């Protein structure tokens, strides 16, 4: 994990508060710079963490059928506005040669990739590519659904709008029937 410079973040937050016309020495804001620095350390803890690390734990299992973990909650920060976006990821793969990983590893990969200044499209493709490169399955698919606060609280102001991104690789990309099976399970 990258080292976070809390003092630098605290100073930046003080400057932002002053720039918007607030008094950073006001009682309610006095500890805000420290709280924000601590929050940023947590929210951006995925910087410099490689999601492929989670797929190094491999089990041999005679299973070459669909594995799907759906509704994995995540929170991330839009790299364009530094405001949150959040939602659920659905991660599927079809193991090859008995190479399976722990189910929690799929969720950890999503969480790690989300804990960076991020784009939803990048989360989707980074997770699926990490699975393909390390587990070498027949195919993999990641679907991410999220609400972006940059669309909800500013700009177009459309609360409740969801953005859906997909990344499909291998047999799941080539075989529409298998891909549709995954989507049916996700939507069930």
Question: What is the fold's blueprint, element by element?
Answer:
Elements: H1 6-19, H2 32-43, E1 58-60, E2 67-78, E3 84-94, E4 99-101, H3 103-114, E5 117-118, H4 120-135, E6 139-148, H5 149-152, E7 163-170, H6 171-174, H7 176-187
Parallel strand pairs: 2-5
Antiparallel strand pairs: 1-4, 2-3, 3-6, 6-7
Helix pairs in contact: 1-2, 3-4
Summarize the structure.
The protein is built from seven helices and seven strands; from the N terminus they run H-H-E-E-E-E-H-E-H-E-H-E-H-H.
Biggest sheet record: 5 strands, mixed
Structural category is alpha+beta
SSE order: HHEEEEHEHEHEHH
Number of helices: 7
Annotation, overall tally of beta strands: 7
Kindly, what is the distance between the CA atoms of the first and last residues, rounded to a whole number of angstroms?
Answer: 37 Å
How is the largest sheet built, in terms of strand order?
5-2-3-6-7
Alpha carbon gyration radius: 19 Å
Note the main attributes of this structure.
single chain; 188 residues; alpha+beta; 5-stranded mixed beta sheet; two-stranded antiparallel ribbon; 39% helix
Task: Note down, in words, how this protein is organized.
The protein is α+β, with helices and mostly antiparallel strands and 188 residues long. Helix content is 39%, strand content 26%. It has seven helices and seven strands, in the order ααββββαβαβαβαα. It has a five-stranded mixed beta sheet. Strands 1-4 form a two-stranded antiparallel ribbon. α1 crosses α2 (32-43) and α3 (103-114) packs antiparallel against α4 (120-135). The two termini are 37 Å apart. Belongs to the GTP cyclohydrolase I family. This is GTP cyclohydrolase 1. It is an enzyme of class 3 (hydrolase). It catalyses: GTP + H2O = 7,8-dihydroneopterin 3'-triphosphate + formate + H(+). It comes from Bacillus seohaeanensis.
